[in-house]
Amino acid sequence: MSAGLIKHLKRKTEEDSNTRILMSQWEFDEKLVGKSLENVGSYYPHFSSHNESHSQQILVNIERLLGSNIDKLTATDTWLILEAAYWHDIGMLFNADEVQDVIENEHFKDYVEELANNNVQDLHEFAKVWHNEGWEAALVHYDNPYKGVEKYRQMVAEWYRKGHAKNSNDVVLKPFEKLNISSPRTELLPKRIYRYLGQICWSHGRNFEEVMSLLPFRQTGMGTENCHPRFVACLLRLGDLFDIDDNRFCPVMARQVGNMPSLSETHEQKHKAIREFQLDSETVSVTAICSTEMAYIECRNWFDWIKEEIQNQMSQWKNIVPHRDFGLLPTINKLDVEMTDKKILLNDKPMKFSLDERSAIELLQGNNLYKDDMSIYRELIQNAIDATMIRVWLEHGQEYSTKKLPKNANPYDAETRELFADYPITLDCKKVADNEDSTLWEFSIEDNGVGISRTDLEYMQKIAGSKNNKEKQKNIRQMRPWMRPSGEFGIGLHSAFLLMKNLPVEKQKILILTKSRLTHESLKIELNSPLSGKSGYCFIEEIDDLGAYGTKLIIMESLSKKIEPLSNSYFINRSLYSFNDHELNIWKKLNKIHRTITNNTIKLIIPNYRNQGKENSINSKIANRPLAKVIV
Fold first, then answer.
1. Do the beta carbons of residue 208 and residue 312 sit within 8 Å?
2. Long-range contacts of 202-211 (CB under 8 A, 24+ apart)
3. Each residue of 61-103: pLDDT tens digit?
4. Which residue intervals of 218-338 are DSSP H helices?
5. C-alpha distances in angstroms, 283 versus 68, 317, 335, 354, 615?
6. Residue 88: is it exposed, middle or buried by C-beta count within 10 angstroms (0-12/13-18/19+)?
7. Nearest Cα to 212, choosing from 75, 317, 304, 310?
8. Which DSSP string corresponds to 320-361?
């Protein structure tokens, strides 16, 4: 409990009779608003606690930030701090009339459509049915009525949460009209003061620039003293941000949730990850040890938010703090996030795809860069070919190489092709799920190339960023012109997510197993789609030695069971009786991929799984066939 601020307010109001109304008002509101906040959990059982305990912790955090400077606060500023901590989340509540009318609200309809179009949202399916067929159909869409009601409650709760900061301002100004909160509004306290309080509550949902421009630095307070709305707003923002300890989620409320949203689970894991937390007027130190990748991302984002807020306030501190005697904000000692497992971090962060400016422009200008899925597979195989070319050059193109490339090596030279025979690329697929209208297939491309190192990954964070890898570019410049990579690794890789755009979000990822020829390190890399819930983040793990150098890339694709006309081809014409019609189309797809690759040097292999017992592999149905090795 924030004993320091309350004691200070009591002392200041006892000293000046002009301010005594502040203490009386606070004693009312502490009980009334505190009681009202207990209702938040009934609408938001899947959220971290936003009841009176949250308000009290904010006040404790502000006391820690201020330290002995509490004594320098005016009575009006102290009252604004106490009241804002309690009122700032009151906008999460809503009355029955509002929620019954909201389904006709045009902005709410836009919100539902937005959810329906966002397939990474937990509410996507529910909102899609609502948007297309109406709310009645959405509520009965599930096998149990509770599930429909639960989804509806979560959707309405999220709608009000999004606008709760502004709603809090509205409730502060008219508490009884909005929520039946009997907080007195009399002429004893000017409405102007309540307007400051409402703006302060609203500020915790605004960006920093809006806080600086919309809230005044100094205003007349009660009696002869001043108040500082901007200063109070900044303290509220920091106190709110620092309520990060591991007790924010109520286990009893969590049991009321039939299906905890994934984002709520991540936030709960984020809070549980806190291991060290120290906050005072001098320094800030927080350490989190996360058990999941998404918890790591949320912790990292939260810590970055804390860092940004402190830096913003420090840069404008003279325009925020009432006077210099308050000193400065605490300095950040550490904001560390770690992982419990073997995940590898690049520069203390998970890898994430981004796009450099020039490449972004090129991609935007080239909307038809990938006309169909064959173009994407061609790009992925080209990456494998480029990696193979680099490895062959490193092992056979150097002066010290024991087996050198022929002096006049070229793609059509028999001796050159014989050397490349030891570096084939293997294309494979297997069925992993069979649905009513479609099947889910796992496609893999495995090369014996140079592999991917941690250094490569740092450059891969920017699509087409490998051109900035000076060491790699130096090796490439030394290569024979016909061996040099044809493109930048990253753009083609990123395009693979287009194959998975209709998959469930948990399947929208690329899995890479690789061993680097340069560092001899074996890595497992999970690349998530920028359109999925993991927002383009990539997770890296050091694994046991893979043995051979090279890279295996695995992606998922859902294919319709609608049968397409089959062409005569090397593969399709052999043992047609071995496959059903849908599987023949898969073979057609593989064969088409073959024919899109024009390199004349490297072998593309489709394995024969005869006698290997791989029942899920389409190739296991090829009986009594030799291994198919196709020169492409």
1. yes
2. 202/165, 202/166, 202/168, 202/169, 203/165, 203/233, 203/236, 203/237, 204/88, 204/165, 204/233, 204/236, 204/237, 204/240, 205/164, 205/165, 205/166, 206/165, 208/309, 208/312, 208/313, 211/237
3. 999 999 999 999 999 999 999 999 999 999 999 888 888 888 8
4. 229-241, 251-254, 262-272, 293-315
5. 15, 17, 11, 33, 61
6. buried
7. 317
8. TSSSGGG--PPEEEEEEEEESSSEE-BTTB-EE-EE-HHHHH
Question: Which has the closest alpha carbon to 576: 286, 519, 585?
Answer: 585
Instruction: Measure the CA–CA gap between 326 and 554, rounded to whole angstroms.
Output: 58
Q: How much is the CA Rg of the chain, to the nearest whole Å? A: 31
Cα separation of 594 and 589, whole Å? 9
> For residues 451 and 23, what is the distance between their CA atoms, to the nearest angstrom?
69
Distance CA 327, CA 509 (A): 49
- CA count, 13 A, side-chain hemisphere, 40: 29
257-314 pLDDT, tens digit per residue, is 777 787 888 888 888 899 999 999 999 999 999 888 888 888 988 999 999 999 999 9
**Residues 511/526, Cβ–Cβ less than 8 Å:** yes
330 CB-contact burial (10 Å; exposed 0-12 / middle 13-18 / buried 19+): buried
Taking alpha carbons only, the member of 607, 604, 610 closest to residue 622 is 610
- How many Cβ atoms from other residues are within 10 Å of residue 201's Cβ? 29
First to last CA, the chain: 74
The secondary structure of 563-611 as a DSSP string is PPPPPP-TTTTS-GGGS-HHHHHHHHHHHHHHHH---SSSEEEE---TT
Q: Give residues with Cβ within 8 angstroms of 137, minimum separation 6.
A: 129, 130
Is the CB of residue 522 less than 8 Å from the CB of residue 491? no
462: β partners = 354
